Backbone:
């Protein structure tokens, strides 16, 4: 079996006219709707808030996320990805 090592992807954010956002280094999208997109990146948990948000492209192979809409703000937090083991352990506490 091959040794699977997780390599870090470069993480960049490009915001164009507050209407187009390109993010690289995204490992997963946790949740999304027209007002908020939450994603796990190499630099932490990224929350993007706005209105009429639409994910145009999400490529899991290269970690590229492109979205459009009116982007009001985005910020990072240290939230960890949810795993089945964490959920089950919390369930039985």
Residues:
């Amino acid at each position: 079996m091959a040794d699977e090592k997780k390599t870090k992807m470069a993480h960049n954010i490009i915001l164009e006219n507050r209407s187009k956002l390109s993010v690289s280094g995204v490992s997963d999208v946790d949740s999304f709707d027209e007002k908020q997109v939450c994603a796990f990146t190499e630099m932490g948990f990224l929350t993007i808030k706005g209105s009429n948000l639409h994910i145009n492209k999400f490529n899991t192979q290269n970690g590229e996320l492109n979205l459009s809409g009116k982007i009001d703000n985005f910020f990072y937090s240290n939230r960890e990805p949810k795993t089945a083991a964490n959920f089950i352990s919390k369930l039985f506490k």
Observations:
- The longest helix spans residues 84-91.
- Strands lie at 13-16, 20-23, 26-32, 36-41, 44-59, 64-77.
